[in-house]
Specification:
Helix 23 links the parallel strand 18 and strand 19. The chain is built from 28 helices and 24 strands. The chain is an alpha/beta fold. The longest helix has about 50 residues. Bound molecules: adenosine-5'-diphosphate (ADP). Adenosine-5'-diphosphate binds next to helix 13, helix 18 and helix 20.
Length: about 800
């Protein structure tokens, strides 16, 4: 073997005779290093021989594909590259692996031998290079494009760009770029055959440009195809997984089973014709849908609803009137008028079953038994009871439902209630119908009208169901605190039954017979384990609750039962008796003192009566005067009407100053301040007129009014007393507060015919129509008696 030669040592020293090896699938360029595999016997012989000489071979591209025959000189191109073998290794199957380095271009002058391998006389083909601006520009263009090609070709390392940039020689740059890019063999050979560097640059420029276009286009197509494929594939893939999981769980045909179940449900539901059609249609759609789609859930929810409604299921009415009466009396004390009305209703139904009864509306303050009366009616009739609160409902859709096209749509509250009650004829209570609002979302009261109208409600259209539901068998009962805020059209549909509230005596009876036994049971106490004396119950009512109804009373009784239960559970006592003096141990100090007595002992303070949705209430009016000049200040959250009353009262006093024995010029040097305490509660209405006037007279004459007096009434400038509203509630409130004398407008006398009989025995009633009579009564005992007799 000869001395190893380095490429540098032999470059430019092309021998005249060179063994030639044909190439079939690549073009070798000067200075480029390439691996090659040799397998033809003649080529192997060539390598063997040159290895022991100068290790140089000329490589030339063949036009033809390789055959088993040795290559012929006619198949070869005229230009090739001389190379030096850097490394040789014998591989398996008689092949040889070579690593060769290109040296320089040559042209073949003539072939000197063909066997055992080709040998040719060659001449070097030197680069013709006149570097100018154009070559520079072409070079940087080629470099730029080449860089992009590398970026778009993940298989080619970035270092190639760095390497290309270090090449100063434009000819070599062309050779390197051409050997790397993916051009056709002919094109590469063409580059090899161009000696003029500028021409070569131009050719390469075209090649890289073309190559880049191809790459870009390829990339674009690739992303598009990938995008389309990804989406479909992902869905497909997930579906397959789902299927596999289901099969694994043994639920393979779940959807089919489900559809069959729905079919059975529809069959069993005994739907009316219209609903049946809608259900079948939805089932058809369901069968065609994929179970994992959102649509499927929508359709199956609808089927659940439509098949679970009690279309034809109701409870038989108990029309045994005696029994019904017994049940109503069992559940409630008093409320005779309401109970009688319910019995009448049942009697008419018994005689004429198809009759459409009126809608009853129980109106009254909270805790007066409206809800529990409704429940009791259901029990008496043997019907189901369902209650919804309409307080704050502003959206028509809450009554009528959302259309199915809405996401998460559901039927309205009426249909929901019907489904929950499981009966098509429940007693359906619509609580707080006076608190239904309306805004941009539609008017719920118009939907309610349809619900409550017997002429329409046999085919109530819920938006979600989209088929009519018959509500005509339902017994609707509504409740309200105030009647004024109920839309007139709705109010017309209803028969109002007023529940006023209870007197303390009634409350004691209800507590003993209903509330205490109920709370006792609720707290797990036996009847001999707890008892409250009458005095204790009375104290709870007067000292801890001030209400028309029974809510707080029941709550306080519950608190006492809790306390007693704790004592018994801790074995501190076997039984608990709660006496007057024990109440504070359970409920804390007395909360409500009789303000009436303490506050009215100064001139300028008078008690009025106010009406609120929670029943009647006492209303203090205080007036004071100070040095000043005709000022009238009013505080305590008073509305305009109340302010007007005060001004009217003042004017009346000024014009009747002499009669009232008040200095006529009193207002010249005075400022007057009227205050109505409990400032957090807004107050308005004309009914405080008499009270304001009396307070001012009391202030200006420095006389206090008689003890335990309250009054209500509107005044005019001429001193008339006009009637006011809510008198019954006010009377009850006055009675609760221990008022002994009441002054009321004469015109309101007729409103009091059905107040509890006990009240007139405990309160002195005075009905007046003139302001001066009010004053006489308020300040003078003697006159009071006199007027009372007339
Ligand atoms: P409302 O619906 O009017 O606010 P509720 O029906 O909730 O009042 O009544 C409050 C409590 O008072 C309930 O526990 C009820 O049973 C009881 N109650 C009300 N009135 C009576 C009555 N006349 N007899 C017996 N208990 C009553």
């Amino acid at each position: 073997m000869t001395q190893p030669t380095s490429p540098e040592a032999v470059t430019g020293k092309l021998p005249e005779r060179l063994p030639i090896m044909p190439l079939f699938d690549s073009v070798l360029f000067p200075k480029m290093v390439s691996p090659l595999v040799v397998m033809q016997p003649d080529a192997i012989k060539l390598v063997d021989e040159t290895m022991s000489r100068d290790r140089m071979i000329g490589f030339v591209l063949s036009h033809k594909k390789p055959t088993s025959q040795p290559a012929s000189k006619d198949d070869l191109h005229p230009v090739g590259t001389s190379t030096l073998i850097l490394k040789m290794a014998k591989g398996q199957d008689n092949t040889i692996q070579l690593l060769v380095q290109g040296l320089e271009r040559f042209t073949i002058k003539e072939y000197l031998a063909e066997k055992p391998y080709l040998v040719a006389r060659v001449a070097p083909m030197r680069d013709v290079d006149k570097t100018d601006k154009e070559t520079q520009a072409l070079m940087s263009n080629v470099l730029g494009l080449f860089e992009q090609i590398i970026q778009l070709s993940p298989g080619l390392p970035q270092e190639m760009v760095t390497m290309a940039k270090t090449l100063n020689d434009p000819g070599t740059l062309c050779d390197m770029v051409t050997s790397i890019i993916n051009a056709k063999l002919d094109e590469k050979q063409e580059v090899l055959e161009i000696a003029d560097v500028k021409k070569r640059l131009k050719k390469v420029n075209k090649l890289v440009n073309y190559q880049l276009e191809i790459l870009k286009l390829g990339n674009k197509i690739q992303t598009q195809v990938k995008g389309d494929l990804d989406k479909n594939q992902r869905e497909y893939y997930l579906r397959q997984q789902l299927k596999a999981i289901r099969e694994e769980l043994g639920e393979g045909d779940q959807d089919k089973v489900e559809i069959e179940e729905y079919r059975k449900k529809i069959e069993a539901a005994d739907l009316p014709e219209e609903a049946r059609k809608e259900a079948d249609r939805e089932l058809d759609r369901l069968a065609r849908m994929h179970p994992s789609s959102a649509e499927y859930t929508v359709a199956s929810t609808y089927l659940d609803w439509i098949t679970s409604l009690p279309w034809h299921t109701g409870t038989p009415d108990n029309l045994d009137i005696k029994k019904a009466e017994k049940i109503l009396n069992e559940d409630h004390f008093g409320l005779d008028k309401a109970k009688r009305r319910v019995i009448e209703y049942l009697a008419v139904r018994k005689l004429k079953p198809e009759s459409k009864g009126p809608i009853l509306c129980f109106a009254g303050p909270p805790g007066t038994g409206k809800t529990s009366l409704g429940r009791s009616i259901a029990r008496a009739l043997g019907r189901k009871f369902y209650r919804i609160s309409l307080g704050g409902v502003r959206d028509e859709a809450e009554i009528r439902g959302h259309r199915r096209t809405y996401v998460g749509a559901l039927p309205g509250r009426i249909i929901q209630g019907i489904r929950r009650s499981g009966s098509n004829n429940p007693v359906f209570m619509l609580d707080e119908i006076d608190k239904v609002g309306s805004d941009f979302r539609g008017d719920p009261s118009s939907a309610l009208l349809e619900v409550l109208d017997p002429e329409q409600n046999f085919s109530f259209a819920d938006h979600y169901l989209d088929v009519a539901f018959d509500l005509s068998q339902v017994m609707f009962i509504t409740t309200a605190n105030i009647l004024d805020t109920i839309p007139p059209a709705l109010r017309d549909r209803m028969e109002v039954l007023q529940l006023l509230g209870y007197t303390p005596d009634e409350k004691i009876r209800i507590a003993n017979h209903f509330l205490i036994p109920r709370q006792r049971k609720a707290h797990g106490l036996k009847s001999d384990q707890i008892s409250l004396t009458r005095g204790a119950v009375k104290l709870i009512i007067s000292g801890y609750t001030r209400e028309a109804g029974l809510r707080n009373l029941e709550r306080e009784i519950a608190a006492i039962c809790r306390g007693a239960a704790t004592k018994i559970a801790m074995e501190e006592a076997a039984a608990v008796v709660v006496k007057v003096n024990d109440v504070h141990k359970y409920l804390g100090p007395v909360r409500i003192t009789s303000e009436a007595k303490t506050r009215v002992s100064t001139p300028g303070v008078v008690m009025g009566l106010a009406w609120t949705p929670a029943g009647g209430e006492l209303l203090f009016i205080e007036a004071t005067a100070m040095k000043g000049k005709k000022g009238l200040t009013m505080t305590g959250q008073l509305g305009d009407v109340m302010k007007e009353s005060a001004t009217t009262a003042l004017s009346f006093i000024r014009s009747h100053a002499a009669d009232l024995k008040i200095d006529e010029d009193f207002f010249e040097n005075l400022d007057i301040h009227i205050h109505v305490p409990a400032g957090a509660i807004p107050k308005d209405g004309p009914s405080a007129g008499v009270t304001m006037l009396t307070a001012l007279v009391s202030l200006l004459t420095a006389k206090t009014v008689i003890k335990d007096l309250a009054m209500t009434g509107e005044i005019t400038l001429r001193g008339q007393v006009l009637p006011v509203g809510g008198v019954k509630e006010k009377v009850l409130a006055a009675h609760r507060a221990g008022i002994k004398t009441l002054i009321l407008p004469k015109w309101n006398e007729k409103d009091l015919h059905d107040i509890p009989k006990k009240i007139p025995k405990e309160i002195d009633f005075h009905f007046v129509d003139k302001m001066l009579d009010v004053l006489k009564l308020a300040f003078n005992e003697k006159n009071r008696r006199q007027i009372n007799k007339t």
